[in-house]
User: Fold this.
Amino acid sequence: MQTRLLRPSEDTTALEQAGALLRAGEVVGIPTETVYGLAANALDPAAVARIFEAKGRPQDNPLIVHIADLESIAGIATEFPPEAQALAEAFWPGPLTIILPKQDRIPMVTSGGLNTVGIRFPSHPMAQAIIRAAGVPLAAPSANTSGRPSTTTAQHVMEDLNGKIAAVVDGGACSVGVESTVISLCGERPRLLRPGGISLEQLERVLGVVDVDRALEEKIDDTETVSAPGMKYRHYAPKAPVTVVFGTPEASADYIYAQLGENSGVLCFDDCAEQFRGRAVVETFGPANDEAEQAREIFDALRRFDETNCTEIFAQCPPASGIGLAVSNRIKKAAGFHVIDLTEGQA
Ligand code: TXA
Ligand code: MG
Assistant:
């Protein structure tokens, strides 16, 4: 299959073309404010099956359903409780996915066999225009090969999926850079399943208490049942194994420097790069004090390691607050939660 690159900046019919392909049951890479999505008609089991095939994604991992107006929710979820309304008012359109009980109309292949469904109203104008042009809700996981870092440019999507999908819409680089926050409203209390573009602190301001799933901080065994099936898979990983070194930027940089071998790679803050040049493959992911910038750069930096010949990677990591929680979660997942914590034992 020839994958078409559709450019709305040069072709005024690009978004309409994307909508027509989606209506015809094809899979299309689309920009959102978080990461690129691999979209298909959420109501069409055959179209959704093509997403799983293109990504090589396990069948039990549910997809998020994307909408461009609040009226669509009634056809997707069986209820829209007050907590969901409060979240929608505060954060939609934007990088938040809300898990609710699903309507029968949403096929089981879309929900990974679950009776619940994740719903997101993205803020990216092109994402909204494509959903409207398609005229149906769009199921879309991140547009990467399963297991690889998510994609934040159309070029990344082409790297992973050229020849496997009908088209990619080029909307430039994503403004958030990490995926949406996933919160479940299907249990007794709201539960954070994946940190993302909306911080835990922001959610707590709207909801009060939010439980945090333990999959955020530790590796989940393949045989265990988890709240968000996607959290149990190895993810975001470059080919070389990653070790996270957590501490102040100075302490972690010094520790990493002492570990460097022949073919080491270092994923570090911009501020620390100089120390490693000439000694290791260095990829930076933003200033130590700017977690929003780190979020925009992290997936691109992880991807760049695969163009190098390093055989081990040491990674710095921001504190787990604000959007730093999402950044640190992605780095720790890339490391299979292999973390050396230099602050352990310190008060
Ligand atoms: O920002 C994003 O969320 C991007 C863009 C394209 O919208 N999408 C995305 O999708 O990251 P994906 O499939 O790569 O990650 C969705 C995560 C997975 O961990 C999945 O298991 C979880 O959300 N999830 C989806 N539906 C769920 C459900 N019904 N119950 C529990 N977890 C669910
Ligand atoms: Mg993903």
Observations:
- The mean pLDDT is 95.
- The first strand starts at residue 4 and ends at 6.
